[in-house]
C-alpha cells in the first residue's frame, strides 16, 4: 500500500544540502587524461595486448596530489562523521528504513519523464500482461508539470502503479544540478519501498519480478549488481582514497557494472545508497571519470557497487560469466547489437532481463529514421553472442525458448489501441497512425524467418 509521501524525504533534503555545501569537493575536476582511454578499452573475459595493470589504471586519467588528498578527505568525513548514527539525519534515515522493512514492502522503481514514458509503459505492460506479475511500481519524474499528464495516466491504466516527483521532495535549487544518471540513486532513497528492483525504462524483465526477491544471492547479500561487457577501469588511486587499499587487487579484477537493473534492500544498504548519491551528485565532474576513465558507458554504473565496497555492506556482483549481447547480422554479414541479456544470478543459463538499448524501442524516433519503410524489414533479435566476437553466436529464439521480439512488438498494439485509446502518447504522431505501422511490422515478423544468416 502506497503512502502519500516518502518517510525519507526531509532527511534526504538535509543530505542534499550537506553535499552541496560542506562536502563540495575543493579541488579541480577530473578532466585531463595522460593516455588515450580508447587504446585501453577491453572486454571482460578476453585477453588484450595491453594489460590493465595498477600502473596503467593509475595513469590513464590524470590525478594530482591535491585531487587525491581532497577525495581522501571527503571519504574520511563521509565515513567517519556523516554516514554514522552520530549524525542525526543518518540516524533518522536508518530508523525509517528499518520501519519500512516489512514483509511485502517490495517494488519496482523507474525514473522517467518526457522522452522516456513510452519505454516505461512498454516495460510495465510486459510485466503486467505477459509475466502476470503484480509487483507494485513507483515512477519518479524530475519535476511536477501541470501540462504533463502522462505519469498520472499510466497510474490509472495499470494497477498498483504510483507516480512521484522529485520536486515534491527537494527544492528546485537542489534539483538544478541533477539530471540523467544522477537521478537513479535519489529515486531509490526516496521510494517508500524497502526492497527495490530499479529498472531503466528501456529494460524489460522476462522472468517473474516477485521471484527475484527470493533469489539466494539476493537473500544472502541484499544487493545484486550485474556485469557489463567491459573490464573494470576504475582509477587505481581511488582505492587508497576510499580506504580500500588492501582490497584494490580483487576489486580491480572484477568486471565493470551494467546498472540498467539493480536489486537492493534499503534497510541493509542505506549507507551504500547515501554514498552512491554523493558519487552521483558530483558524478560528471569527479566520480564518473574516476570510476570509468573514459571506458564505454561512463556514468552512474559503477557508483553503487563501489559504494558498497567502501561502506563494507554486503553485495553480489556477477563475475566469472561473460555478459551476452543480442542482435542481428546486416546484409553485409556484420553483427549489429541491439541490447544486453542479463541472467539469473544463481543460474547463468536462465535470463532475467532484456535491456534493449541499441537502439531503444522509441517508436517515434524509429519512425522518423525510416525504420518502418520497406517490405522486407528483417528481424533484429536473431543472435546471442559475446560482445567481442569469438565465433560462438547462438540463435536467439531457440536459446531463450520464446519469440520475445514478436511478443514485445505485439503488446505495443494493445498499448496504442486499448490502454491509451483517446490519450495522445506522442506529440509528433498519433496513436492510431503509429499503431498501423506497428501492426504492419508484426505481419512482417510473423512471416519472416526466425533466424537469418
UniProtKB/TrEMBL annotation:
Positions of transmembrane segments: none
Pfam families found in the cross-reference section: Mannosyl_trans3
Coiled-coil annotated residue ranges, if any: none
GO molecular function terms noted in the UniProt entry: alpha-1,2-mannosyltransferase activity
Signal peptide boundaries: none
GO BP annotations, alphabetical order: mannan biosynthetic process
Name of protein: Glycosyltransferase family 71 protein
Taxonomic lineage of the native organism: Eukaryota, Fungi, Dikarya, Ascomycota, Saccharomycotina
Amino acid at each position: 500500500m502506497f503512502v502519500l509521501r516518502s518517510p525519507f524525504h526531509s532527511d534526504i533534503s538535509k543530505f542534499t544540502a550537506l553535499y552541496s555545501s560542506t562536502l563540495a569537493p575543493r579541488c579541480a575536476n577530473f578532466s585531463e587524461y595522460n593516455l588515450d582511454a580508447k587504446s585501453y578499452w577491453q572486454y571482460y573475459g578476453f585477453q588484450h595486448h595491453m594489460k590493465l595493470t595498477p600502473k596503467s589504471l593509475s595513469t590513464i586519467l590524470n590525478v594530482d596530489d591535491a585531487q587525491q588528498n581532497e577525495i581522501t578527505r571527503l571519504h574520511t568525513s563521509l565515513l567517519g562523521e556523516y554516514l554514522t548514527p552520530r549524525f542525526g539525519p543518518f540516524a533518522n534515515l536508518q530508523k525509517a528504513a528499518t520501519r519500512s522493512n516489512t514483509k511485502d514492502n517490495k517494488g519496482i522503481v523507474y525514473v522517467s519523464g518526457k522522452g522516456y514514458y513510452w519505454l516505461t509503459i512498454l516495460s510495465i505492460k510486459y510485466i503486467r500482461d505477459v509475466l502476470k506479475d503484480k509487483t507494485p511500481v513507483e515512477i519518479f519524474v524530475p519535476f511536477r508539470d501541470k501540462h504533463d499528464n502522462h505519469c498520472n495516466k499510466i497510474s490509472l491504466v495499470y494497477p498498483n502503479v504510483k507516480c512521484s516527483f522529485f520536486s515534491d521532495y527537494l527544492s528546485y535549487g537542489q534539483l538544478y544540478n541533477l539530471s540523467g544518471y544522477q537521478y537513479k540513486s535519489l529515486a531509490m532513497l526516496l521510494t517508500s519501498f524497502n526492497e527495490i528492483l530499479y529498472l531503466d525504462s528501456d529494460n524489460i524483465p522476462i522472468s517473474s519480478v516477485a521471484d527475484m526477491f527470493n533469489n539466494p544471492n539476493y537473500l544472502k547479500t541484499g544487493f545484486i549488481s550485474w556485469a557489463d561487457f567491459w573490464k573494470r577501469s576504475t582509477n587505481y588511486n581511488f582505492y587508497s582514497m576510499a580506504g580500500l587499499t588492501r582490497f584494490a587487487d580483487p576489486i580491480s579484477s572484477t568486471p565493470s557494472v551494467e546498472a540498467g537493473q539493480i536489486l537492493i534492500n534499503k534497510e541493509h544498504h542505506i549507507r551504500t545508497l547515501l554514498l552512491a548519491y554523493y558519487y552521483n551528485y558530483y558524478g560528471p565532474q569527479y566520480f564518473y571519470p574516476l570510476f570509468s576513465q573514459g571506458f564505454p558507458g561512463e556514468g552512474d554504473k559503477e557508483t553503487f557497487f563501489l559504494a558498497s565496497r567502501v561502506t563494507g555492506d554486503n553485495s553480489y556482483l556477477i563475475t566469472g560469466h561473460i555478459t551476452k549481447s543480442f542482435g542481428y547480422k546486416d546484409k553485409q554479414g556484420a553483427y549489429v547489437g541491439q541490447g544486453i541479456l542479463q541472467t539469473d544470478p544463481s543460474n547463468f543459463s536462465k535470463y532475467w532481463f532484456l535491456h534493449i538499448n541499441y537502439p531503444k524501442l522509441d517508436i517515434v524516433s524509429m519512425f522518423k529514421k525510416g525504420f518502418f519503410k520497406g517490405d522486407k524489414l528483417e528481424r533484429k533479435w536473431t543472435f546471442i553472442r559475446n560482445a567481442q566476437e569469438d565465433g560462438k553466436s547462438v540463435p536467439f529464439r531457440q536459446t531463450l525458448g520464446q519469440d520475445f521480439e514478436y511478443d514485445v512488438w505485439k503488446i505495443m498494439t494493445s498499448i496504442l489501441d486499448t490502454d491509451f485509446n483517446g490519450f495522445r502518447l506522442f506529440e509528433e504522431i498519433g496513436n492510431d497512425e503509429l499503431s498501423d505501422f506497428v501492426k504492419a511490422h508484426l505481419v512482417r515478423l510473423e512471416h519472416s524467418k526466425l533466424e537469418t544468416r
